[in-house]
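User: Sequence recovery, please. Input:
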């Protein structure tokens, strides 16, 4: 076979080197990629491969102008893709664009357009040539990977036993809400709740019952925190924490009281030593409200509320203690 020396990778040189326009055309139309050419001055298709009909259903002859191309694009993609391609073409920059193209029967196929800008000797844009590629399967794979990533991310932020937020999620949300409270001057409240004598509960009822107890309490706490920015998290062991943005002392106190009532309404029997009131599971709560200044630290606030929780426990349990405002 004779070597072909191609002085330039451009389309015309390839055709000249092959020496047969029919062979050149057959090569282009035998690939799954769809070749096309647009005259820049008229914005009309000079050519588009017949493969377009097999992919999208639109007849080859129906691709007359760039308006046909734009009209057959998903509305959510159209402005972004058309604006990008026009600006890059005007600048004479080769580019790629991914978008959803509409089939003749109203479905959509993911397309990647790879565009080469052809210039005249004076530097002005003469035409655009390129290939369309069907990337639907690749997009499906990417979307599946993204879905799995989101699921894994969600799992990493969720307590495996109770299904509520875990400590990692709480720490992230606290950092964000602390910064927002500092900027806005609005209050931020915490309720930290610890199940009374939970070790004795496990000893008396077993760890399976202990897990069920934790899940039931997590469920009622989640039901109480209805606002979009509220966070209910398992803080560790038998300890739960509620993050309440834009909640002042009164609102936080009402939430704590509602938690006590909701746990009492569960009437979970506690047969262990030193069981709660009436032989049912109870909890102790610490409550605090902060209005963060420039030097205030979120961790110090959490530690302070945790201290009043333990004051509630040492003061007799099944109690609410409020952090005094400095």
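Assistant: Recovered sequence (326 residues):
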């Amino acid at each position: 076979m004779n070597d072909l020396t191609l002085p330039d990778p451009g389309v015309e040189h390839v055709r000249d080197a092959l020496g047969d326009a029919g062979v050149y055309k057959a090569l282009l139309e035998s690939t799954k990629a769809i070749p096309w050419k647009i005259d820049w001055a008229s914005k009309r298709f000079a050519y588009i491969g017949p493969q377009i009909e097999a992919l999208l259903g639109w007849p080859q002859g129906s691709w007359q102008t760039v308006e046909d191309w734009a009209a057959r694009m998903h509305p959510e993609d159209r402005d972004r893709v058309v604006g990008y391609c026009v600006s890059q073409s005007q600048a004479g920059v080769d580019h790629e664009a991914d978008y959803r193209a509409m089939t003749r029967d109203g479905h959509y196929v993911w397309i990647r357009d790879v565009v080469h800008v052809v210039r005249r000797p004076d530097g002005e844009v003469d035409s655009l040539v390129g290939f369309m590629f069907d990337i639907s399967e690749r997009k499906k794979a990417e979307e599946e990977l993204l879905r799995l990533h989101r699921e894994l991310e969600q799992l990493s932020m969720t307590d495996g036993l109770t299904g509520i937020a875990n400590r990692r999620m709480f720490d992230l949300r606290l950092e964000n809400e602390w910064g927002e409270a500092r900027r806005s001057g609005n209050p931020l409240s915490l309720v930290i709740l610890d199940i009374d004598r939970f070790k004795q509960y496990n000893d008396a009822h077993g760890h399976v019952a202990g897990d069920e107890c934790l899940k039931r309490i997590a469920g009622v706490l989640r039901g109480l925190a209805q606002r979009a920015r509220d966070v209910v998290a398992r803080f560790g062991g038998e300890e739960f924490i509620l993050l309440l943005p834009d909640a002042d002392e009164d609102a936080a106190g009402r939430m704590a009281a509602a938690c006590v009532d909701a746990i009492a309404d569960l009437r979970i029997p506690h047969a262990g030593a030193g069981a709660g009131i009436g032989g049912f599971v109870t909890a102790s709560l610490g409550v605090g409200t902060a209005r963060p200044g420039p030097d205030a630290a979120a961790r110090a606030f959490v530690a302070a509320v945790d201290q009043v929780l333990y004051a509630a426990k040492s003061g007799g349990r099944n109690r609410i203690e409020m952090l005094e405002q400095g």
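The beta strands are 34-39, 44-48, 95-102, 108-119, 125-134, 188-195, 231-236, 239-245, 283-290, 320-322.
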